[in-house]
Amino acid sequence: MCYCAVFAFLAAFCLVASSAATASSTDLLNIFGNADMNDRIDEADAAYVQNIIDGKSEATKLSDANYDGKIDAADTERINEIIKGEEKELTVADSVDRNVTIKMPVASIIALGTYRNEAAKILKAQDMMVGVSSDILEDGYYYPDLADKPAVGTWSAPDSEAIVKLQPDIVITSANLDRATKLEESLKPAGIAVLGLDFYRDNIIRSEIITLGFILNKNEQADRYLQWRSTYDQPISDFVAGLKEEDKPTLFMEWGTKNTISEISSYGKGASGDSVCSFTGGRNIAGDMKEFPKLDSEWVLKENPDVIIRSLAPGSGKAGWNNTEEAAAVLKSYVEGRPGWSNLDAVKNNRTHLLSTEIAWGPDGIVGVAYYALWLHPGEIDIDPVKIYREYLDQFMGVEYPEGAVLGYPDR
């Protein structure tokens, strides 16, 4: 059940007290009952709720554990039930600011789209999946073990009737408010909850993995992935923390397949690409613009970025380009198709790069992050994107590395 309105009581406490900010927002467990706003629900949350009742602490977004519009002893009781694994329901704050109450325990799911299915595989939840969206069977090479699952339409246009026949406890769709709301309305008569989670935005993916792992009772699997990822995230973060702002190279990022010299898709403030650029120590030349700005070639020429990264899909179901010759030809065509770009510093200094969208975003997006760091700081940071991808496929996807595939070009 989704509550579209925010209770008046909670609206009065929209600010989180500093004493509750015990974890980074990127690691936040978005479950009501996580009163102290960290990555777990434990006795400290029950104590925090008691402090709210006693007037010693302020309410937080997630302190109304039973989501009934007030903070009282019933919330402490719900938190204790959650700690013991005896809760009959949980309320989840999904990634489109919807609060969704789901019945527990969750035994069956449908994940729509490759990012959601990728996350489910990381959590070793294949046995819980009663259906899949048809696109992952057509395009994704990560999912041979899901080929026998019933298809329920595409991720963007799911078949509600097919979903209802399979009776999943929850359906996970993308973090798009309109899409999640429409799907929820169509499944509400069957009592099927819908969560909007992306699993591709670098700034919230950790929180989403933690939250879904908690819902599915797959906490150990979530921790294993996040600890593995941290072995690569943390050195990048530490390196960037030591940089002065003026030492960070300027970066232009381009995405999309229908771009022209007068309309080029890029990443602005709040977009996934902007987040990765910032994390890896670059300065996004479109960082002050709207989330997905449309730019023209003359503007890029005027800005003259130090580095250019062009994200592009190499082909249906492919991790990367077949070889360096193919990737080189694609990059050459890209640059030559833009009049005057041969004069850009990024081009003259061989700092124009091609990145496969397969590993640019999503749970495997740490590979793309590694390429960003490598290209923004050549010779300064020791990281191997190919090694990371091999580990990811082996440890989490259970598929072979596509030998010879070019994920990023040139790789140095």
Care to describe what's here?
36% of the residues lie in helices and 14% in strands. The protein is α/β, with parallel strands linked by helices. It folds into 3 domains: 2-93, no CATH class; 109-217, Nitrogenase molybdenum iron protein domain (Rossmann fold, 3-Layer(aba) Sandwich); 244-409, Nitrogenase molybdenum iron protein domain (Rossmann fold). Strands 8, 9, 10, 11, 12, 13 and 14 form a 7-stranded mixed sheet that branches. The protein has a 4-stranded parallel sheet with strand order 5-4-6-7. Strand 2 (89-93) and strand 3 form a beta hairpin. Helix 2 (43-53) runs antiparallel to helix 3 and helix 8 runs antiparallel to helix 9 (219-241). It is globular. The model is unreliable at 1-23 (pLDDT under 50).
Summary?
With 412 residues, this protein is an alpha/beta fold. The protein has helices spanning 8-11, 43-53, 73-84, 114-122, 134-139, 160-166, 177-187, 205-215, 219-241, 272-279, 297-303, 324-336, 345-348, 366-376, 385-397, and strands at 2-3, 89-93, 99-103, 109-111, 129-132, 170-173, 193-196, 250-260, 263-265, 283-284, 294-295, 307-312, 352-356, 408-409.
Total number of helices: 15
Assigned CATH superfamily of the largest domain: Nitrogenase molybdenum iron protein domain
- How much of the sequence is in beta strands? 5-15%
Pick out the low-confidence regions: 1-23
Helix content: 25-40%
What's the CATH topology label of the largest domain? Rossmann fold
The CATH architecture of the largest domain comes to 3-Layer(aba) Sandwich
Q: Sheet with the most strands?
A: 7 strands, mixed
- What order do the SSEs take from the amino end to the carboxyl end, as H and E? EHHHEEEHEHHEHEHHEEHEEHEHHEHHE
Round the Cα radius of gyration to an integer and report it. 23 Å
Backbone structural class: alpha/beta
The averaged pLDDT comes out at 92
| The CATH C-level class name of the largest domain | Alpha Beta
Secondary structure: number of strands: 14
What number of structural domains do the residues give? 3
How far do the termini sit from each other? 50 Å
